[in-house]
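Morning!

As promised:
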Amino acid sequence: MHYISEILPSLLSGAGMTLQIFLWTLIGSLPLGLILSLGLISKIKPLQWLINFYVWLMRGTPLLLQLIFVFYGLPLIGIVFPRYEAALFAFILNYAAYFAEIFRGGLQSIDNGQYESARVLRLSYGQTIRKIVIPQVVKIVIPSVGNEVINLIKDSSLVYVIGIGDLLRAGNVATARDVTLVPLVLVAVLYLLLTAVTTFVLRRIEKRYSYWK
Amino acid sequence: MLEIKNITKSFGDRTIINKLSLTVKDGEILSIVGPSGAGKTTLLRCITGLEQVDSGDFLVDGQPFDPYTNRSNDSVIGVVFQNFELFPHLTVLQNITLAPTMVLKQSEAAAKAEANKLLARLNLGDHGDQYPYQLSGGQQQRVAIARALAMKPNVLCYDEPTSALDPNLRQEVEKLILSLKADGMTQIVVSHDLTFAENIADEMLHVEPNQSK
């Protein structure tokens, strides 16, 4: 017990870093993913190709490689990111690609009749997307987005590779130093707590959207 | 009065509508009938601006207009779709007030008062706060009519108004369309149901698949 209270502060500060990366990645990648998905369903072919290429690149290479590339690779051509910014940059670009594909699926499941119905009521494209399409898409994509969100909590542990002190790294350091399993078990418990809270929040959001069918 | 002169519409090398002209007088009902594949729905989609005609003219009260590009605030054509295409995430009242507030820039209160009047007129008085999935097919259709009427159209169009409903509701629809006529509404009804179309029509237009060779 004494040992736990001794290492808990460093684990919690690591968890704080994990949470920061988690939140900023969501704040950056959800809107970016939405914009990209509108490009994916647009009728402008070159735009579609470009975004498809982007999605292929981001989903087709390991996030770990992307992190290393941004932090260790880009400086070789003169683009230098500090650690934390490098991590956010890579995570936002990577997750936006996944979200774009999820949103594209959601957008395509909206019946064309809804667009036509909005059109004969003379709503503009922007009004149609904001008032008619997005509210319906959100409901459809919540479960898939939730999956990615849970994944993100755990993926954030990849930042150890560029030397950021997150939750996993804090536990790893303590285990190596004190030669005991306890820190790793605590790390697992903290991750489970984070995912439990996130799952709860996601359920609440899902419930909020269950007022219509 | 709505006049359509010599409109032609082709998809690829298939001419669906060939030099068709028609006139609907104010307060009258035009029924467009014909077997499936004759181009009834295409004709209606051209009139409602969902398809662009290849050639021909549209006149409302002698003024030329193009339904495909019309975005002015003088609402011209209202549409009741075969499957109604209500917005499932909005209440009945919100379905009706959305376009008047966003397109016609009516105040929330004015649009709501107007919508409640329409709901009362269409015997939907207590359903304003319900969602479309909570309504029967006949009620959904009346909401779709109210939503179209809220935009104060010169002409109200129906695509197969009886086909998505229980057969014994046919007379209800007849009564409703005739009562709107009594209020002075000009209406165009596309139907494959000849008896129904004859019962309501002032003028009949028969379209045949072969006319357009």
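Residues 2-40 of chain A form the longest helix (39 residues).

Hope this helps with the figure draft.
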